[in-house]
Amino acid sequence: MRIGLAADNGAWHKARLLAALTDLGAAPVLFSLAEVTVETGHDEPLRVPGFGGGLPDGVLLRTIAGGTFEATTMRLGALHALVAAGTVVWNGPTAIERSVDKAMTSLLLARRRIPTPETFVLSRRDAAAEVVAREAAPGRPLVLKPLFGSQGEGLQLIVRPEELPPEELVGRVYYLQRYVARRDAAWQDYRIFVCAGRAVAGMIREGDGWITNVHRGGRPLPWRPPARAAALAEEAAAAVGCGYTGVDLVEDGEGGFLVLEVNSMPAWSGLQQVTPVDIAREVAAGFLAAVRAGHPPRLVAAGGPP
Ligand SMILES: Nc1ncnc2c1ncn2[C@@H]1O[C@H](COP(=O)(O)OP(=O)(O)O)[C@@H](O)[C@H]1O
Ligand SMILES: [Mg+2]
């Protein structure tokens, strides 16, 4: 099998995935999506470095580096073209588009009746202001999140319509979500890692405030997810279509959980500190199994004397 590993940044994760893939018998070719080109003078116009004129059977995608709208569109287009040509891409471009766009994630979760905090997405500030006036109050804020946000950056609690930033500062999309209060004034919520449809590891994240991302100083603590949380994370992964994903959950205060986010390019260095499960190996094994299923080995006729 011709296997590619596309990891534009993150040396630790890249090294772990390379080692795991190699350990499992694959000979991965490391490349960057920024090096993929289109050249129409060939039989196959998509040129992936390291694969000659052909295409890989599988691409394990760890990250798409941030870039201009043009660069991102081209890279997603290249991934769609790979999928169309029969390459197994993990995570695939559709899953990435769905999870990077928090509005689409919320829509998909809601359609599947997967519990998630009530969410409102609006393009116009006056429409967003109406929602805030109607839904928020002192002690009952809404969370304003950047539509493409990650690592807990740019989140803001909104109580009054006047607090809404102007349209230019939110990319002309207001993503507003009901704030879920934590129990016992402890700033804890949860991350579950799902791989090939199965919850394989989890952790508590404890912050110094309501945003608990490890990037923002959140501390990982060991946690064995209860069955209902694991099932919820697995449903959320399926709703978005991720082969592997980190799902953020928060307690609903009534003994259940709500899904906050489904990450299609999850980091797991924090989680790896508190779980005995080798996450890179889980990802590599799940991915290789998917590639094999997508490209079953050609059966050689048994032949021989009757
Ligand atoms: N609706 C909410 N209620 C309470 N806390 C929230 C809510 N949404 C997000 N948070 C906190 O902020 C963190 C970051 O939000 P998240 O939606 O996961 O975006 P990001 O892509 O930045 O990680 C969450 O892990 C959680 O700690
Ligand atoms: Mg998150």
From TrEMBL:
Residues 106-288 form the ATP-grasp domain. Keywords: ATP-binding, Ligase, Nucleotide-binding. It comes from the Bacteria. GO terms for molecular function: ATP binding; ligase activity, forming carbon-nitrogen bonds; metal ion binding. PROSITE patterns: ATP_GRASP. One of its GO terms (cellular component) is cytoplasm. InterPro entries: ATP-grasp (IPR011761), ATP-grasp_RimK-type (IPR013651). This is Alpha-L-glutamate ligase. It comes from Methylobacterium variabile.
